[in-house]
User: Fold this.
Amino acid sequence: MLLRRVWPSRPLFESPFSEFDQLRREMLRVFDSVVSNEPAAGVFPPVNVTQDDDNFYLRAELPGIKAADLSVTALRNRVAISGKRSIPEEKGKVSYHRKERAEGEFSRSVALPGEVAADKVAASYKDGVLELTLPKAEETKPRQIAVSAQ
Amino acid sequence: MSMLRNEEGKSMEKSGRAPEQTYHGPVYSPAVDIYESDDRISLLADMPGVKPQDLKIDLRDSTLTLSGRVDSGAGQGETSITTEYESGTYFRQFTLSEMIDQAKIDAKLEGGVLHLDLPKLERAKPRQISVQSS
Assistant:
């Protein structure tokens, strides 16, 4: 008898605790994501990446930056954001109570799960959030495959 | 340390407990710069993603409250790949010691940065007193 398994082989009779084991792992993962919902230190700006059938979307929190000071480049499946944030020094005699906002140069490169059409990338900056719309390259788009019945 | 405890004790007494948001979701404390000159206090706060209509600034009993809501900006049908920041609420309170002219407060929200201008009352401004020699 020829037996061919496509899925990773699993024993037919699993231990009764394997379900608990999986649940435990899942809970740890959720716990980790709750406890460390901030990116590793020094990563700026924080970005969110989403996708739909046609595009990838990248949103980055970049408060108080001039659009002219931002540079966005895309190549194959990578997007790079770089720029400079400068906080103008207050003129006149002032005393600072708090100075928490940081300034300086930043650059970040993000790998996407697929290639993008780099010439069609659109970028907008609104309310301190940079939003990139990155159309997927033709070969990255999901394709509906018709199943023909015979 | 003892001063901190005293202050905490005082605020606990006043409000009972820390204010809680009615909205569900994470609450963030925005980074601020605060500086003072002879006639005003200026406050700059980083609040990316907040729209002007979703930002609330409240000053009463010398407590300044900033709160703003952010939505993720994601359209329908988008699925998440990476999430490094979450949308939630910005919330921060300050106690202002100087007397502020509440009628002249000016707020601007530009590129996710709030610029708050709090002019001091006329009688709270410092005055130079010249000493006459006889």
